[in-house]
Amino acid sequence: MRKSRPKPTLLKDYHVIIPASFFGMILGLAGLGSCWRVAAKLWHLPTWIGEVIMLLTIAIWLVLLLLYVGKWLWARADALAEFEHPVLCCFIGLVPVSTMFVALASAPYSRAIAITLFVVGAIGQLSFGVYRSGQLWMGGRKPEIITPILYLSTVAGSFVSAIVASNLGYREWGPFFFRGGLFSWLALESMIMQRLYLLEALPKPLRPTLGIQLAPPVVGCVAYLSITSGQPDAFAQFLFGYGLLQALILLRLLPWLFQQPFTASYWAFTLGIAALSLASLRLVERGMTGVMQELALLLFIGANIAIGSIALGTVRLLLRGKLLS
């Protein structure tokens, strides 16, 4: 009698295995919470809304961190495959960057915890950025797989480090990180633009990563405002203006970008969306008037609608059991 072949049973079959890209949720939510904190001061809005968003961000980060650490324990092969993947590996940089955002979220409640998280996150992002950049410098990368994801390794981490360091009072470290992020962005920007202009169009699954293209100028603007004081100078306005141009280009591309069904990958847009709104709010907070005041209100409303819609879509996928499909 022929015995039936037993189905393979792996420990990982009984656990949730998340991609590192899920930490992008933390960047968008924390960015939106930061917008509400500033907006509450400017327009006398309820302060509890921003704090609820921040506390929700911390809770989601804790869950994701536990699942990601678990991934290295019960699905090490998957974790290593992601680490060695030429595209997906860059998302790992979101882990320390999200940790610094949580430091920012927790700062009003516990300075000791905030400083600890910042130090861990800053060292983590710098270590990963140096390691990953060293790999890129050795060559062998196909031009077709160059995407804005590359910004996550050095640009995002450096700018966020500058923001959090300045907010926690370590203002001498802010310029150090800002300069690293600025020149990394300028070096990568031309390469990414060349790929987008000259090679084949990005495949549909990778198109949401174009949302990251919005982030460098506006996160850089927030970082620059964090390390300076007084009336915003021309350079801050240059950064904001270029970010606004990127946002308009992405709006023009929305029909092309949304040619695939909604997935969690659309969280790639949220950091840039939140930072664009936050930059405008910071500019108004620092004394800019006129059109910037109206623009700040419009961008704040837009950020809430966009990030709220993506969050609701993610919850819907979760309830349908399709979030990880």
Task: Describe the protein's architecture and organization.
Helix 1 runs parallel beside helix 10, helix 6 (151-167) packs antiparallel against helix 7 and helix 8 packs parallel to helix 10 (270-285). The model is unreliable at 1-12 (pLDDT under 50). Helices cover 68% and strands 0% of the residues. The chain has helices at residues 24-43, 47-74, 76-84, 94-106, 111-137, 151-167, 173-198, 215-227, 234-257, 270-285, 291-319. By secondary structure, the protein is mostly helical. The chain starts with 23 loop residues before the first helix and ends in a 6-residue tail after the last helix. It is globular, with a radius of gyration of 20 Å. The chain is built from eleven helices and no strands. The protein has a single domain (15-319), classed as Alpha/alpha barrel (Glycosyltransferase), CATH 1.50.10.
Structural topology:
Elements: H1 24-43, H2 47-74, H3 76-84, H4 94-106, H5 111-137, H6 151-167, H7 173-198, H8 215-227, H9 234-257, H10 270-285, H11 291-319
Helix pairs in contact: 1-2, 1-4, 1-10, 1-11, 2-3, 2-4, 4-5, 4-6, 5-6, 6-7, 6-8, 7-8, 8-9, 8-10, 9-10, 10-11
Short description:
Helix content is 68%, strand content 0%. It is an all-alpha fold.
Structural features:
325 residues; mainly alpha; Glycosyltransferase; 11 helices; 0% strand; globular; disordered N terminus
